[in-house]
Structures are given as C-alpha cells and as structure tokens.
Amino acid sequence: MVQTFTAMADPFRSLPRSPILPYGWQRDTFIHLVERVAPHLGIGRAAAHTWARLASMTRPGDWVEHGREPSVYAAASELAKILALSDARLRAHTARLERAGLIERRTAANGSRSRHAGTGLFFSGVINRFSELNALDAQLTTARRRAIYLRGQRSTHWRCLRQVLEQLHDVASQDARVQAIAAAFAAWPRADRLHAMTLDTLAAHEIEADILTQAALDLLETLQKSSDRPLKNERSHLQDTSEDFSLSCDAHPGRQRPAEERAFGRRSSGSPQTANPDAGNGFDTRPIASGSEWLGQLGPERLFWLASPEMQFYLSGRADPQCLRWHDVIWTAERRVLDLSIHPSAWSSACAAMGPDCAALAMLILDARRTDPVTPIISPGGYLRGMTRAWLQGDLNLMGSLIGLSERRRREEAP
C-alpha cells in the first residue's frame, strides 16, 4: 500500500521505531539471503536483482542501528537510469516487490520522493520478516542438501548396477531376469534430469534404484552359487578371507598410539597396506593389487563391529552383519554424510580421491571416532577433508585407524 504524506507534515512524528537486523547480520549478507529465497516468494530473477540493486543503494548502517531506516529517495526516473531499466519495467518490478512485502513505497501527494518529506522506497518491512525469511532459507538449504544427497545415492546405485550388469551379461545374457533388470536400468532418467525432479519424486526414484540394485546383486550371487565358481571381478559381499587384521590388532597391546598417528601415519606407497602376522611389526608394507582386495579382507561382521551405533543402525536395516555388501556400506556412509551435516562437496572430493570404497571406510572411521574419549572429532566435515588431503599426500593410514578403533572397542568391552 502506498502511503501519502504532505510536504508540510512531520513524517517522523507518528512512525514507529524502525526494526534492525539481528546481531551479527549486515546489509549485504541479508541481501544475499533475500535473493536466495526470492523465487519462493513469487519473485522472478529480474525483480529480485532489482531489489538487490535498490537495497545496495541504502546506507549499511541504516540496517543495524536504532533510529535509522534503510531507504532510497531518488526519483523513479533517476532510478530507472541507474538500473538501466525502462520506467515501465521499473514500475512493474517495484509493484511486484511491494506485493511480496520486500519494499514499501511512501510518496508525497504529487508522487515525489525526498529525504526531507520522508518519502521514497523503504525496507523496514522486509527487516520485520527476517525470522520468516531466515527460516525459509534454512529449509531450502536443507532441501538442497537432501537433493544433492539423493542424487549422490542414485549415482552410487547406477555405478554399482552397471558393474553388476556387465558381469551378468557375461554369464547369463539371455536370462529373462537379467534382461528385465537391464530394461529397468535403461529406463532410469539421465543424471541431468534428476535436477528437475521434486524432492519427493527424487526420493521415490532413489528407493526404486536401490531395490533394483539389490535385486541385481542377489541375482549375481544366485548365479555364482549355481555355477559353483566366482564370477569375474565379483565382490558383492565383504569377504572375510583373512585373520591378519585381528592378529595385527594385538601386535602391540601395551602401546597406546595417538589418534592422529593412527589416522594420518605415513604410508610407504600410494596403495593401501595389508596386515601380515609374519611381519615383524604386524604389517606388510608391500602394496597389494587394489584397495577393493584389501577392503575385502576386513570381513562384514568385523567392519560392523567397528562402526558407530548410528552406522550400525543403518547397516542393520540393510542386511544382517554377515551378509553386508560394499554397496550397503557406501549407502550408509552417504547417509551419515547427510546426518552429520557434512557438505556434499567434502564427500565428493573424498570419493574422487580415494574411490567410493575407501571413502566409505574413511567415513566409518570418522563416525566412530566422533565419541573418542581422548580426541573426539568436533568438525566431521573438516576432518573428512583432512583425510582426503592426507590420502592425496600419501599420509592416510586407514589400517592404522582401524587398529586404533579395534583397540578402543576391546577396551570398552573388557570386564
């Protein structure tokens, strides 16, 4: 609503005390907040940009100091020139912004604006809506992160299912079950289409993708058993093929190593190390063929035992501990990324550097160490980025971290 004042009236006499931004907020940070939520207030990009330009013309102190009110007094024709807009376009934007409650127009009887008359474009109304807009921004941020998480999990399912289908086609390409899974996989929307999905639709698709991937893994296991031989590159389950890990955990029972040394100890090569009971220090420093081979030696029940209660809860919902697959561990690690408010970019960087398997193992270690009685992890996101940097520099000792977790679990369970 346009308020009209006469030039002779005292414009400040009846005005209420102007609101200010909460402590710690400044004009520019609030402008960015409004720009982020503007599309959800029915404001188009062009009108939102106009509002931001107008708000930036105000004095910063007017937003945070009592007794002052952020406002723009320039005439409409002058503002149109400054903003490189036609008079008609500026009027349209101003009307839209006023309907949305982002500005308030106060004009004199002849439509003029001036500081002396207390007329112009004012922003006190939008400051009054700070709590509402800030809550909306937090809600949208949570939704964006959940959408990123769901797209990441769909990517995990896609990657796993593609690998499983390659193996299924090698041994049973004519099997009707394989063909049905392949057809359903081919019908999945492309990755770029996921961005246009609503959150509910994306969540439903992720569940369907997970179910299809689990069905493919089950079929692969069935064919493996029927053929009585392992399929090429088969690593569906976490295979417990070595007792080396438990032996190495007892290699130095009286020595308590610092948590930092366990997590960021120098590796002798770029590949993970595997434990060897015949080595003098409990480790064989020679690199093995691949990280997946090394990870497979851990065994599902042992890995479940080392996980945090929260991660165990999710893993239990996927399968019994002895039947867990690496797909389940990666899925759970991504879920904990969301729960711990770790920025998706930190997880993406870890996967790109270490591969999804080792990144999931890093998340398991990080999650379990959040409650370490000596050196708990305060910032999970920062710690994950630190683990990624250490990996790239050859300084991440995942096996040492697992040994440290095992030592802690044994102490906790000791009578």
From TrEMBL:
<dbReference type="Pfam" id="PF03428">
    <property type="entry name" value="RP-C"/>
</dbReference>
<dbReference type="InterPro" id="IPR036388">
    <property type="entry name" value="WH-like_DNA-bd_sf"/>
</dbReference>
<dbReference type="InterPro" id="IPR021760">
    <property type="entry name" value="RepC_C"/>
</dbReference>
<feature type="domain" description="Plasmid replication protein C C-terminal">
    <location>
        <begin position="307"/>
        <end position="406"/>
    </location>
</feature>
<feature type="region of interest" description="Disordered">
    <location>
        <begin position="228"/>
        <end position="286"/>
    </location>
</feature>
<dbReference type="InterPro" id="IPR011991">
    <property type="entry name" value="ArsR-like_HTH"/>
</dbReference>
<protein>
    <submittedName>
        <fullName>Replication initiation protein RepC</fullName>
    </submittedName>
</protein>
<dbReference type="InterPro" id="IPR005090">
    <property type="entry name" value="RepC_N"/>
</dbReference>
<feature type="compositionally biased region" description="Basic and acidic residues">
    <location>
        <begin position="228"/>
        <end position="240"/>
    </location>
</feature>
<dbReference type="InterPro" id="IPR036390">
    <property type="entry name" value="WH_DNA-bd_sf"/>
</dbReference>
<dbReference type="Pfam" id="PF11800">
    <property type="entry name" value="RP-C_C"/>
</dbReference>
<feature type="domain" description="Plasmid replication protein C N-terminal">
    <location>
        <begin position="26"/>
        <end position="167"/>
    </location>
</feature>
